[in-house]
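Example 3.2
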Amino acid sequence: MSIRSRLAVSAALVLAALGAQAQTGAVRAEKNISLELANQIATATVAACAANGYAVAATVVDRAGVVRAVQRADNAGPHTIAASERKAFTSASAKAPTKTMLENSQKNPGAATLGDIPGFLLLGGGLPIKAGNEVIGAVGVGGAPGGHLDEQCAQTALDKVKGELG
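Structure, written as tokens:
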């Protein structure tokens, strides 16, 4: 068998193996938030709160809860950075709004200890970021006088970039 024939057979075997691997689900393709979009969301969130007179911090994390962008308004308290990061992490991890998680933990005894998970913060102000039905990250906000107001700022920012999320 010639070298050219051997290479062709080897290539065919490799392609067949890769095809079999793809069919078995050994390799996954996942959507994730880009740095550019994370920065846009963080900036729009802080601006939305500033328009209402609130000095906040906004953190955007990727689908795994890893920080991609942080913005802290002038005069925002030092605690707002940690609060926003933990809310974003919580929302990305659970793929749910933190306000909903808080309400569920208060109503459901089986979920009462969710707040004990390291890194979780069960207060309003964390929202998942979705591309279609897939969570690609989350935004967390800290510093407005109430979690519901933090959440409103985050939702305003997400509405602003809705067209880029698909």
